[in-house]
């Protein structure tokens, strides 16, 4: 009944026209409304995309919430779960890296990285490599 008349149907054959008519004849009242879950924002979070850098140390000057369309501050989501994200630079990824996998999906310490060194010019001197 929470679904209202638009989803009210026979549990065996899934017919709604004849079933609704029979229920009304028997005196069963069916609310003329949209399903209750469509009126609330109970499922709104399911359509939201993860939008922050989850690296242990975010290096972005604009903070964890900032993301750009491309470049070192482009936010990559985990290609397996999409529940974690990282800026390319925060995980030592090159600008051409198109996918990344978080430690939770790849196994701790094995997050897939395309590069093991930060190219010079990103503010880290020679010999400073990402682990």
Q: Can you walk me through this structure?
A:
With 131 residues, the protein is largely without helices or strands. The protein has three helices and two strands; from the N terminus they run ααββα. Strands 1-2 form a two-stranded antiparallel ribbon. The longest helix is centred in the N-terminal third of the chain and has 9 residues, at 17-25. It is rod-shaped and about 70 Å long. The chain starts with 16 loop residues before the first helix and ends in a 25-residue tail after the last helix. Residues 111-131 have low confidence and may be disordered.
Described by the principal axes of the CA atoms, the overall outline is rod-shaped
Distance between the termini: 56 Å
Structural class by secondary-structure content: little secondary structure
For the biggest sheet, the summary is: 2 strands, antiparallel
- Unreliable runs, pLDDT <50, ≥5 residues? 111-131
Task: Indicate the proportion of strand residues.
Answer: under 5%
Please state the CA-atom Rg, rounded to the nearest Å. Answer: 25 Å
Number of strands: 2
Strand adjacency order, main sheet: 1-2
- The helix count comes to 3
Summary of the model, kept short:
This protein is low in regular secondary structure and 131 residues long. It contains 3 helices and 2 strands; from the N terminus they run H-H-E-E-H. The protein has helices at 17-25, 36-39, 103-106; strands spanning 75-77, 85-87.
């Amino acid at each position: 009944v929470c679904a209202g008349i638009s989803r009210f149907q026979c549990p065996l054959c899934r017919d709604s026209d004849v079933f609704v008519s029979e229920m009304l004849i028997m005196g069963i009242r069916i609310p003329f409304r949209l399903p209750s879950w469509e009126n609330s924002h109970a499922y709104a979070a399911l359509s939201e995309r993860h939008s922050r850098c989850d690296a242990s140390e975010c290096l972005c000057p604009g903070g964890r919430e900032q993301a750009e369309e491309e470049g070192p501050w482009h936010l990559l989501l985990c290609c397996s779960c999409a529940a974690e994200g990282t800026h390319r630079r925060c995980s030592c990824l090159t600008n051409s890296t198109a996918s990344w996998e978080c430690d939770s999906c790849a196994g701790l310490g094995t997050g897939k990285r395309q590069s093991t060194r930060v190219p010079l010019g990103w503010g880290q001197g020679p010999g400073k490599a990402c682990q």
